[in-house]
Amino acid sequence: MANESILLDPEFDTPGKSRGLIDVFKYRYLLTLLLKKGMSTRYYGSVLGWVWSYIRPAAQFLMYYIVVGIIMNGDRGVPLFPVYLFSGIVAVNLFSEILRNTTAAVVDNRALVQKIFLPRELFPVAAVGVALLHFLPQAILLLAVVLFLGWTISLAQIAAFVVGLIIIIVFALGLGLLFGAVNVAYRDARNFVDLILMFATWASPVLYSWTMVHDRAPSWLFHTYMLNPLTSAVQLFHDTFWQPLAPDVAHPDLLMTYVGVGVAISFITLVVGQLVFRKLEPAFAQRI
């Protein structure tokens, strides 16, 4: 009778059973500890520490501005090109850091995976949190620049920023869950992610205007390009920080349609990533 009452108890959970991303909210304390661990080890032993969060995007911006903007005349027809460039770099850097960190999250925490049970999704979600904390200095720097240039905030800009941020986080986390699970058994996954990140900057309007693709590419290729969730996210970041300073510049037709599709693709990617992650999760401790 005792065993029967335990089985019928709605509060009884099978040891080692996880409900996926839903359980992340149940283990908030562990998530906080993983965030602190990620922050403390990020620049462990570094002299400059957090300053690297400013140096890296600044060096990246300077390189692209000199090569693409000045030498290749990429700034032609794009007013306030430095603001346009940096707002795109900030968006792509967040996507890159989330995807890279989430792909490596399970393997980097192999000691915990092998010793105790906890929802394995905690590791990639904590990696997202660390990436967002390192995103803040870049966003603050961008905000300071546009405020100096006369930028004023509106509800439309806040909405564009939030939606762009959601697309980046959800899309990158979905891909990170997928490749992070595969990476446990096959380290080739990290190399494949590096290829994706190598193309990410060029496959979205960061270094050039979307009009160049519109004017030179076939119609089907332009629509495919615009359906890329990262393209929508970068364009929304431009709408937030750059477009108000250059109101006369042409705006993509059907942008809201592309954004809607981008949001849908991002959440579909998250669902697929979670399903693959849960399918491969039982073998993590043995294969890691």
Automatic annotation (TrEMBL):
Residue ranges annotated for the ABC transmembrane type-2 domain, each copy included: 48-280
Entry membrane topology: Multi-pass membrane protein
Places the protein is found: Cell inner membrane; Cell membrane
Superkingdom to which the source organism belongs: Bacteria
Keywords linked to the UniProt accession: Cell inner membrane, Cell membrane, Membrane, Transmembrane, Transmembrane helix, Transport
Pfam families: ABC2_membrane
GO biological process, one term: lipopolysaccharide transport
Name under which the protein is recorded: Transport permease protein
Species annotation: Leucobacter komagatae
